[in-house]
Design brief:
Elements (H helix, E strand, L loop, with lengths): L18 E5 H11 L14 E7 L2 E7 L3 E8 L1 E4 L1 E6 H10 L4 E6 L4 E6 L2 E6 L18 E4 H9 L16 E7 L2 E7 L3 E8 L9 E7 H24 L9 E6 L3 E6 L2 E6 L18 E6 H12 L8 E7 L2 E8 L3 E8 L7 E6 H10 L5 E6 L6 E5 L7 E6 L5
Antiparallel strand pairs: 1-5, 1-7, 2-3, 2-6, 3-4, 4-17, 7-8, 8-9, 10-15, 11-12, 11-14, 12-13, 13-25, 15-16, 16-17, 18-23, 19-20, 19-22, 20-21, 23-24, 24-25
Helix pairs in contact: 1-2, 3-4, 5-6
């Protein structure tokens, strides 16, 4: 189900007289936040356009690819309210090249749009506003406020584990699990699973448990919106160092077909992924009693060196745990062989397990290659597990890896 509904034909006269003046700096900021949603190659020409709507003292900008949409706004001087659509990539590239200052945008006949800045005068070919698909409105009920930093961390620690295979539909996103006292996110591609939880969060409006499956592309857009909001907040704090700003939050709401995330004055809406996400709790290893604790940075460096000599297709490396040592090795007939050794307390039976080197490196990178990580094993045929070795950590992460035959 697309998030976009059929638009009722509107009179062509609507917005026929639109005329506004806007700061180039403000406009570039909002176009940057929305342009990534616009499809570069689309069979529906109107989807290559921004929808620009001026009313009161605000300019609303919308971009959609039918699966998701971003709506944002900027303060403007509205001489004549109205609406138009403008080719998104062309407008974005052009506005970026203009010098700072005020820009005037005026709708002409036949959907042409005139853009003036200083001595620059440009006319762009737009399309009828009436043909632009309708984007769903943010619901007014059942809105949950989620701490922005927590959501950003959850996405960063799971998004890399989302499946790239389009056929595995329910694995093409991450599962957000909201409870009254915690939030968590989990993603898997069938070969590895990344789970992260932030306990101790009180989420209003959540009773029991709420699970929503968020598509990967929406998570990528949400990441960008959160980064933009953070940098803009930092700029505000520099301008007003004595002002107490409230923590950044994301307002979340949903309906039968759509998920909504509002970050400040920007709203991302996306179709929700349907279908049943795998029972991830059942996959978590319970009896991995053999373990080693090593520094993330040391493990990452060793794996990167050894992986240079792994089979190019599989990226497989061996982890051998024995008498106070973790040996990491690889070999291939094309490039040779390599071994690195890390000292770690261990006195159990020796164990050798093969893993995809890239999968381990992605998890360590998501942790920032900081602190220590615990590697937990049962035997060479069972799933291994990794988790940060910090009992006081703000986030609880678990990373499950299926072994490889080497």
């Amino acid at each position: 189900m697309s998030i976009v509904e059929t638009q009722v034909e509107q009179p062509a006269a609507q917005g026929a007289a639109m005329e506004i003046t806007v700061s180039r700096q403000e406009l570039v900021k909002e176009l940057t936040a929305t342009q990534s949603v616009v499809e570069r190659k689309t069979t529906i020409p109107i989807l290559s356009n921004f929808l620009i709507e001026a009313d009161g003292d605000r300019l609303n900008i919308t971009a959609t690819d039918l699966d998701q949409a971003i709506r944002t706004s900027a303060a403007v001087k509205v001489k004549k309210p109205g609406a138009c659509t403008i080719p998104a990539r062309k407008l974005y590239d052009y506005i970026k090249l203009l010098p700072d200052g005020d820009i005037s945008i005026k709708l002409l006949d036949n959907h042409w749009v005139q853009i003036r800045s200083g001595r620059s005068n440009t006319k762009m070919v737009g399309m009828a506003r009436a043909n632009y698909p309708q984007v769903p409105e943010f619901p007014t009920v059942a809105v949950t406020s989620i701490p922005a930093l927590a959501l950003k961390t959850l996405i960063a620690r799971t998004i890399f584990a989302i499946s790239n295979e389009e056929s595995r539909y329910t694995l093409n996103g991450a599962l957000l699990v909201l409870k009254a006292e915690s939030l968590a996110m989990v993603a898997t591609d069938g070969h590895r699973l990344s789970f992260v939880e932030k306990p101790g969060e009180s989420l209003d409006g959540i009773s029991g448990e709420k699970r929503v499956l968020i598509p990967r592309k929406a998570l990528q857009e949400l990441q960008q919106l959160l980064v933009s909001a953070e940098s803009e907040r930092e700029a505000e704090e520099k301008r007003a160092p004595k002002t107490q700003f409230p923590p950044l939050t994301v307002e979340f709401a949903d309906d039968e077909h759509t998920l909504f995330f509002r970050v400040g004055h920007r709203t991302l809406s996306t179709r929700r992924l349907s279908g049943q996400f795998p029972n991830f709790e059942a996959v978590m290893p319970r009896d991995n009693t053999k373990f080693a604790v090593v520094r993330c940075s040391e493990l990452s460096s060793a794996i990167q060196r050894v992986a240079q000599f792994a089979d190019e297709r599989s990226g497989a490396i061996r982890l051998r745990l024995e008498s106070n040592e973790l040996k990491i090795s690889s070999s291939s007939t094309e490039s040779g062989e390599s071994e690195d050794t890390i000292d770690t307390p261990y006195s159990g039976d020796p164990i050798v397990v093969g893993f995809n080197s890239g999968y381990i490196l992605e998890f360590l990178k998501a942790l920032g290659n900081e602190g220590e990580v615990r590697l937990e094993f049962k035997d060479s045929q069972s799933a291994g597990q990794m988790r940060p070795e910090d009992p006081d950590a703000e986030y609880r992460s678990r990373y499950v890896l299926m072994p490889m035959r080497i």
